[in-house]
Amino acid sequence: MSTATKTKTEGGSLAGYLGGNLKQYVMVAALVVITLWFQFDTNGLMLLPNNVVSLIQQNAYVFILTIGMVMIIVAGHIDLSVGSVVAFVGGLTGLMVMQWDVAWPVAVLLAIIIGGIVGAWQGFWVAYVGIPAFIVTLGGMLLFRGLAIYFVGTTVGGLPSDFNALANGALPNWLGFLGNLDTVSVVIGAVAALGLLISQIRTRRELVRNDLRTEPFIAFVVKAVVGIAAIGYLTWLLANSAGGMPIVLIIVGVLVLLYSFIMNNTIFGRHIYAMGGNLPAAMLSGVKTKRVNFLLFVNMGMLAGVAAVITTARAGSAVASAGQNYELDAIAAAFIGGTAVTGGVGKVTGAIIGALIMGVLNMGLSITNVVPEWQMVIKGLVLIVAVAFDILNKRRGK
């Protein structure tokens, strides 16, 4: 390989590569620094195995909603209704199970379908009538909150323990223990680490085969080692927890893999980026923008249905007040994770990092007994700083 070809395929110097991906690495570094700070400030309580499990379970709804929100924002829209949709669909799920004698697995499937119908309703107004998504989803926020109050009224409790285990339970320990470690967690962690390594190697080989730019080899190695180490440490924590591998983490993991593939490897994903980057150019290129916008909101509704099931299972009951400020959590996680305010830029994995930052802040501030009003102030400042950094980074790159 010639020097010119090597420079092209390996993306130039390490410093140049890091500069071009500054935002991504700053967010990861911020997550690490915040976590270590609270670990120190709480005398080691932050990363106790059971606390890590609680962090995952308590913030699962943010992980799920922010996946769909990233896609919406990348395309140049916003969705303010997801919290109300969670309350509405979660309320209907509780009613189906407790009052309408629907088996809970069927109720879960129907909840996702109802969420998709809600998304189709909103997507119709955005895509085919041309009403801005901000207005449509603002109306949806009021509409579906009202319907949640109408249908649910009071709390619908007494949900089956198997249903509640979706959010609160762990996978059964079919394989016993390795010393004090839950073997199921160890096996899943090992598979995840191997999958990450294989995926990164295949991606790099594909880029090299097509003579496309890749990161310098040292950056590739460091990224792989750090990723595998992070999975290993999380696996160790979960394997030492009281229950082992949380069921909800498996659900979130599958969704992250699925939607990362959709955004990075499908025509639909490329069309989303094209619309957010330059809508007129996308239309001239033949992108069916109305169809894409419609499907985006159907997808957001379905993910809100999944989040509704998890939220209802987590609480063990359906309440009309569920989902308060969920839309703000999802939007904040997306922006903190590097999704551009102007659209066209954003990754599912980045949004998950943003959601983790929000979750670590929530738990760390609670453990340290910071009053709720100051928790809101701190999270608001973090959001502003993250967006400001994104804007300044873009200006620096021009």
TrEMBL record:
A Gene Ontology cellular-component term = plasma membrane
Query: Transmembrane as a keyword?
Result: yes
Q: What is its main location?
A: membrane
Give GO terms: molecular function aspect only.
transmembrane transporter activity
This protein's record includes keyword Ribosomal protein: no
- A Pfam short name: BPD_transp_2
* Protein location: Cell membrane
Main role? Answer: Part of the binding-protein-dependent transport system for D-xylose. Probably responsible for the translocation of the substrate across the membrane.
Q: Topology relative to the membrane, per the entry?
A: Multi-pass membrane protein
Q: Where are the transmembrane segments?
A: 25-48, 60-90, 102-121, 133-153, 173-197, 217-238, 244-262, 292-310, 330-346, 374-392
Specify the taxonomic lineage: Bacteria, Bacillati, Actinomycetota, Actinomycetes, Micromonosporales
- Extract the InterPro entries matched here: ABC_transp_permease
What is this protein's record name? Xylose transport system permease protein XylH
Give the keywords, sorted. Cell inner membrane, Cell membrane, Membrane, Sugar transport, Transmembrane, Transmembrane helix, Transport
Domain of life from the UniProt record? Bacteria
